[in-house]
Design brief:
40% of the residues lie in helices and 17% in strands. By secondary structure, the chain is of the alpha/beta class. It has two domains: 128 residues, translation initiation factor eif-2b, domain 1 (Four Helix Bundle (Hemerythrin (Met), subunit A), Up-down Bundle), CATH 1.20.120; 199 residues, Rossmann fold, CATH 3.40.50. The strands form four sheets. Strands 6-5-4-7-10-15-16 form a seven-stranded mixed β-sheet. It has a four-stranded mixed β-sheet with strand order 11-8-9-14, covered by helices on one side. It binds 5-S-methyl-1-O-phosphono-5-thio-D-ribulose. 5-S-methyl-1-O-phosphono-5-thio-D-ribulose binds next to helix 2 and strand 9.
Length: 351
């Protein structure tokens, strides 16, 4: 990808403003953690792994110039502000906890060294994310026949990660192996991640993509036009229930109805082993204006009641497989995911 989603340069954090794509490619530069927090909250950057990387970089920015007891207090404050930005994607909390562990074991360092150590950890999180996505791609590519048409929802691509993507990473890897893969992208109301971001990424790499409105998925599935559905995830519970962008659950129901495999592609950092099942996953509700306005213009009657959950939970029983960097988990997920976590290798029920 020519465009970098997030980058650390000259001790500042750069992000492409995803709110403006595909019309404008604007890079924002943040020098303090509050700016990074606001960028996550307002969706300048979005996607579970990408906001984890952003939060880690935000911590490094926030601790710059701090040492000793001041650094302790500062860390708590910075982590609290970053953690409060978006509740559903567990990658954010995961990245903050990783930064906390590094901080705890280096708190005796002087301010300069502490800053460099935290910055290096944030950069490692970003590098590891790209490596994980490439491994997810490589495992997932084997699931696709050729030719294949993949239906996806939201954006689980390079823009949602530090690079390469999870669901779109599988498509990239399959194409790199010479498979003929095309994409059908749900537009993904109300933020339009599919129509704006997935379509933009695919066009940039000349991967054939067709955008449909969310309510057209049943029609393309019934027509037999889809080989499989592949989506990303914001948090996967220990039993395999999957929280992802609102509109994912109906796709899974439709896929089952039409006998089409429903795959979830996500790194292990998205699996919350402390979360027993989907009922325990916090679901973010976003501003009513995402629904009452369309590109700044009001589209609903003034004062109408709005419900705007940003994510839904797909029950594990509708998920055909979960593609991770360590292999492919198949049901029953509680055992398969736990095995991937501890084995550090491919699960015994991996394909
Ligand atoms: O609200 P968003 O755009 O942050 O939601 C993003 C998604 O739901 C993605 O599918 C998910 O984070 C996986 S990204 C690899």
């Amino acid at each position: 990808m020519a465009v970098k989603t997030i980058e650390w340069r000259d001790d500042s954090v750069r992000m492409i403003d995803q709110r403006l794509l595909p019309q404008r490619e604007v890079v924002r530069i943040y020098k303090d953690y509050r700016g990074v927090a606001e960028a996550i909250r307002s969706m300048v950057i979005r996607g579970a792994p990408a906001i984890g990387v952003a939060a880690a970089m935000g911590v490094a920015l926030g601790l710059r110039g701090y040492s000793g007891a001041r650094a302790e207090r500062r860390f708590d404050q910075v982590a609290r502000v970053l953690r409060a930005t978006r509740p559903t994607a567990v990658n954010l909390a995961w990245a903050l906890e990783r930064m906390q562990r590094v901080f705890a074991s280096h708190r005796e360092l002087d301010a300069d060294r502490l800053f460099r150590r935290l910055r290096n950890e944030a950069l490692a999180i970003a590098r590891e994310d790209v490596a994980a996505n490439r491994a997810i791609g490589s495992h997932g590519a084997g699931l696709l026949e050729s030719p294949a048409t993949v239906l996806t929802h939201c954006n689980a691509g390079a823009l949602a990660t530090a690079g390469y993507g999870t669901a779109l990473g599988v498509i990239r890897a399959a194409r790199a192996r010479g498979k003929k893969v095309r994409v059908v992208a749900d537009e993904t109301r109300p933020f339009l991640q599919g129509a704006r971001l997935t379509a933009w990424e695919m066009r940039k790499e000349r991967i054939p993509v067709t955008v449909i409105a969310d309510n057209m998925a049943a029609t393309v599935l019934r027509a037999g036009a889809i080989s499989c559905v592949i989506v990303g995830a914001d948090r996967i519970a220990a039993n395999g229930d999957v929280a992802n962008k609102i509109g994912t659950y109906p796709l899974a129901v439709l896929a089952q109805r039409h006998n089409v495999p429903f795959f979830v592609a996500a790194p292990l950092s998205t699996i919350d082993f402390d979360c027993a099942d989907g009922a325990a996953i916090p679901i973010e509700e976003r501003s009513p204006t995402e629904l009452t306005r369309f590109f700044g213009k009001p589209i609903t009657p003034e004062g109408v009641e709005i419900f705007n959950p940003a994510f839904d939970v797909t029950p594990a029983e509708l998920v055909s497989a979960i593609i991770t960097e360590r292999g492919i988990a198949r049901p029953p997920y509680r055992d398969a995911l736990a095995q991937l976590r501890t084995a550090g290798g491919v699960a015994t029920n991996a394909v």
